[in-house]
Structure formats: C-alpha cells, structure tokens
C-alpha cells in the first residue's frame, strides 16, 4: 500500500462478544506482530477492558455517558474509562443510534464529554439503505457531522476520528465498492474542511462496513481511507491481524 499522509488506525469493535480467553489470545498475538506504522485499538465490552495490558495495546470503549457520575444505573463515565486505561471511545455507532435511539445531538454531547476528559472519540456516521437509495447520503452524513462540529472547537476537531459505516453494509456481508467508500470519505473530509481546513487534512476517517482480510487492502488503498472500524472480523485473531497488516 502506498505511504499514507495520516497515520492509519484499525479499531476492533467486539460489540457484545468476547471473553477473557479471547483477551489473552488477542493481546499475545498483537504483542508479537510488528505493526509499527499504525495504531491498533481494541474495543471490547466494558467487563473485559481491565483484562488488557495497555502498555502493549491501545484500548477503547464502545460508549460513555454524558454524566460524570451519580445515580445513572448501567452507565459508565469518561473517568471510569480512563481509570482502566482507555484512550479511545466509539460514539454514535449505528447500533446505538437504532437500538438506544441516540440522536445526533446526544452523540455530539458525548463527543464533547470525551474530548474534555482527554479521550479520543471515534465518531460513527453513515446511512441506512433507504437513504442511499433516495440519493441523500451526503445530506444525511452532513447532519451527523454538523451536530458535532457545532458543539466543539476547531482545535478539538483535530482530536476526533470519524468512522463511516454504511448501515446497509454492517453484518450483512455486503461491502460498498472502493469507489463508493472513497466518494463518501472524500465528502466527509471536504465537509469538515468547512469548519477547519487543518482538521480536514489531518483527521483520520475509517471505513466500517464489513471489512475483512480479503478486501481490506483494496479499501485501505483509497486516498481518504485511513483504516477501519472492524466488527465481526475483529473477533478472529488471524483475520484481525491480516486487516491490521493491510493498513500497516
């Protein structure tokens, strides 16, 4: 793969999967790999976060609360995530937007909380099938991005990672063509440039739609793709390593 302007990042989103055995197997495999030209992040369920050695791997969570503490049963704060060594947190994943009814505004508030705490948010944006079929992909994604840029500073925008996840290509086995991926990634970068040109050039944009060991290299070769947010394949050690090698 040609040299990248931005340092690639591959983040594995385990979702509600995994156990302590997988933690050990994954950590040992990553420790032995030579992935010096990229950032590798693992985002397991909350119960497994403390099982990782954060001197060997970058750790991310799958969500956080807008509240710092208090009577919020089932929630977890930014400070708690930092306490177990998290550096990243996934926010606004399509599954949370759909299942927990998270609005663009709530996601934006969580991004602000993460940045204030010193966590790097991986902000997920992307369209369902009906939006793509209607030809309004850019409008839909722009609204998700604008909610965030309206509540954070230009300087903070430099710390954000964006993940484009076409909802119709998550867990379905369908993957957007490299050309479709590049088209939306280029739009995201250009749109963010309206808020901050420096951020647009530096911000890392990941692809999050059914990336696997077979298609990773072709997708990551696109000029505005800076790595991937990996779902199911991140639970398979060999596949995840192969995807990381494709970005390295």
Automatic annotation (TrEMBL):
PROSITE patterns: TIM_1 (PS00171), TIM_2 (PS51440)
List of catalytic residues: 93, 165
Binding site for substrate: 13-15, 171, 210, 231-232
Subcellular location: Cytoplasm
Domain of life: Bacteria
Keyword Hydrolase: no
GO MF term list: triose-phosphate isomerase activity
Keyword annotations: Cytoplasm, Gluconeogenesis, Glycolysis, Isomerase
Catalytic reactions of this protein: D-glyceraldehyde 3-phosphate = dihydroxyacetone phosphate
Record EC number: 5.3.1.1
GO cellular component: cytosol
GO BP field: gluconeogenesis; glyceraldehyde-3-phosphate biosynthetic process; glycerol catabolic process; glycolytic process
Pathway(s) annotated for this protein in UniProt: Carbohydrate biosynthesis; gluconeogenesis; Carbohydrate metabolism; erythritol degradation; Carbohydrate degradation; glycolysis; D-glyceraldehyde 3-phosphate from glycerone phosphate: step 1/1
Catalytic class of the enzyme: isomerase
Any Pfam family: TIM
Quaternary organization: Homodimer.
Function according to Swiss-Prot or TrEMBL: Involved in the gluconeogenesis. Catalyzes stereospecifically the conversion of dihydroxyacetone phosphate (DHAP) to D-glyceraldehyde-3-phosphate (G3P).
Family: Belongs to the triosephosphate isomerase family.
Record-given protein name: Triosephosphate isomerase
Provenance organism: Bowmanella pacifica
């Amino acid at each position: 793969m040609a040299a990248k302007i931005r340092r690639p990042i591959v983040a594995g989103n385990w979702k509600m999967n995994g156990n302590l055995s997988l933690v050990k197997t994954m950590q040992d495999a990553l420790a032995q790999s030579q992935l010096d030209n990229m950032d590798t992040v693992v985002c397991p369920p909350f119960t497994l976060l403390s099982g990782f050695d954060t001197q060997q791997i970058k750790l991310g969570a799958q969500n956080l609360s807008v509240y710092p503490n208090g009577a919020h049963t089932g929630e977890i704060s930014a400070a708690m995530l930092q306490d177990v060594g998290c550096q990243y947190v996934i926010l606004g994943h399509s599954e949370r937007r759909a299942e927990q009814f998270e609005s663009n505004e709530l996601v934006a508030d969580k991004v602000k909380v993460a940045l204030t705490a010193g966590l790097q948010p991986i902000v997920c944006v992307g369209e369902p099938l009906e939006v793509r079929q209607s030809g309004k992909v850019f409008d839909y994604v722009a609204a998700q991005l604008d909610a965030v840029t309206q509540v954070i500073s230009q300087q903070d925008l430099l710390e954000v990672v964006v993940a484009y996840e076409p909802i119709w290509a998550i867990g379905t086995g369908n993957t957007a063509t490299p050309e479709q991926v590049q088209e939306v990634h280029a739009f995201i970068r250009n749109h963010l440039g309206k808020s901050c040109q420096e951020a647009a050039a530096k911000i890392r944009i990941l692809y999050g739609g059914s990336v696997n060991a077979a298609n990773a290299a072709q997708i990551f070769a696109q000029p505005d793709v800076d790595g991937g947010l990996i779902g199911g394949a991140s639970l398979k050690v060999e596949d995840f390593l192969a995807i990381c090698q494709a970005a390295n």
